[in-house]
Amino acid sequence: MLKSSFGFVFLWVFILGSGVVPVRAQDWQSPDSDTSLAHFPIKLVDDLPHLFIPENIAPFAVGTAATAFDWAVLDQQNSLAASLNNWNNHSLWDFGNFYGEGWVEGFGAVGSWSIGAFTNNLRLQEFGRDATESLITATVLVTGLKYAVGRERPDGSNNQSFPSGHTITAFCFAPVVQKYWGWGAGATAYALGTVTALARVAGYHHYLSDTLAGATLGIVIGNAVVYTPKDVKLSVGPGQMELQLAFN
Residues of 57-78 as b/e, b for ≥16 C-beta within 10 angstroms? Predict the structure, then answer.
């Protein structure tokens, strides 16, 4: 059963990772260049429908299936937590817990936005704004779900186990990093998110299904924030018809 749990986790991470298309950072820019604070609430609301974009179908479907399977089959034994503790990598788990704290990503997001504004670096401003938007959306969603589901944590401390807030925070940051700074930086962000997810299980703060749900929702949110609508342009003239597609 333990081997099945490990295999399911890393297979899920691999499938989600392979669904993210690598792009060179310089090939992409935000379709919304207004980085002012006044415009921020408008962009946040406008991006909410992007949660349902086609690009999110695969990660949501796989993540939901993995979450449901683990909740129903593997969480009862929770053998992964005991195995992770046997690794004696307490410093790694401490780092994972630290990285998943909202203020860590929040400091990076708001700091990038502020430094970009001070140095007149539009790309840094856009990254900071989008990272901030991703974190705010994740916080609102995870808070509502925690109270709606009311699942008891493995350590019995409270009834806010599902989904993992640390994990959704770490993973909602990753798609934004990947979109702006390329696949190398994005892969690092996804790896750090995975460490955070495992750390939450190792500390008996969450079941594996809680972290799978957090990672899934984080990826969906991050993808929504940096989504670029496809431009379709159709022009018709005497004796000719031209269709132009622009894919970002």
Answer: eebbebbeebbebbbeebbeeb
Ranges of H-type helices in 48-164: 57-69, 79-86, 90-99, 102-119, 122-149
pLDDT tens-place string over residues 42-67: 999 999 999 999 999 999 999 999 99
By the 8 A CB rule, do 202 and 93 touch?
Answer: yes
Reported as a single tens digit per residue, the pLDDT across 73-127 is 988 888 889 889 888 888 999 999 999 999 999 999 999 999 999 999 999 999 9
Query: What's the pTM?
Result: 0.84
DSSP string for 162-217: SS-HHHHHHHHHHHHHHHHH-HHHHHHHHHHHHHHHHHHHHTTSS-HHHHHHHHHH
Residues 57 and 74: their CA atoms lie apart, in Å, by 25
Amino acid 77 reads Q
